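User: I'm writing a tutorial on reading structure tokens. Could you give me a worked example: one chain, its sequence, then its tokens, then a sentence or two explaining what the tokens reveal?
Assistant: Sure. Here is the example chain.
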Amino acid sequence: MTELVFRTDIAVTLVRSAATDADVLFAARVSTAGEASLDELTKDPEKSTGLINYLMRDRHGTPFEHNSMTFLVQAPIFVFREFHRHRAGWSYNEESGRYRELQPVFYTPAPDRKLVQHGRPGKYEFSAGTEDQHHQAVYAMEAAYRRSYESYQEMLQAGIAREVARAVLPVGLFSSMYATCNARSLMHFLSLRTKKENAKVPSFPQREIEMVAERMESEWATLMPLTHAAFEKHGRVAP
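And here are its predicted structure tokens:
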């Protein structure tokens, strides 16, 4: 049988980008400067932090849409089920279980992944599990993964179509997708999929999608540091 791979990490790669703070400025200044707003492309954005903060504070959102970032995300399928709820300003293309044989890479929680859930729906809190609980979770997952992938392989070898055989595979299977967004749509994603003390509106994301969000935010903060700083300053609310 093919050797299974168990992963506790999630991979996010910035594939391409056309995203700078200057993109926000030329889009905003066309309102008052018309074609002269093109001059913003050659100016130092640092001199216009006040405008970026004003746009963020008063939620003038459209100037933050004139940019683009494409990420390759490698994560378990259950992460993508949450990810695809974000539709406005996002484009997705995911690996297909109809067209290729899916590889045996599966998610298991890292030892520091909190396992015990408290509270009510929509406001869950989590605490660390015991060592025994972690071992039990990992053992149960690995056993289920082995059996499901064995069944998948048996059906493929029997000539059953990939699109049918894949039905036995669990949501802990890793998949890959390209996700393209702009700064405004990414800020909305971050406001819901990260938990930060300085956020004006509290959010309670599942840890695995938060791991994706953290990696995306790190890449975006490098590309558009002034915009990211304004997002932080004004409570991580998408304009």
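What the tokens reveal: The first strand starts at residue 5 and ends at 7. The beta strands are 5-7, 11-18, 68-76, 91-94, 105-107, 116-118, 125-127, 174-181.
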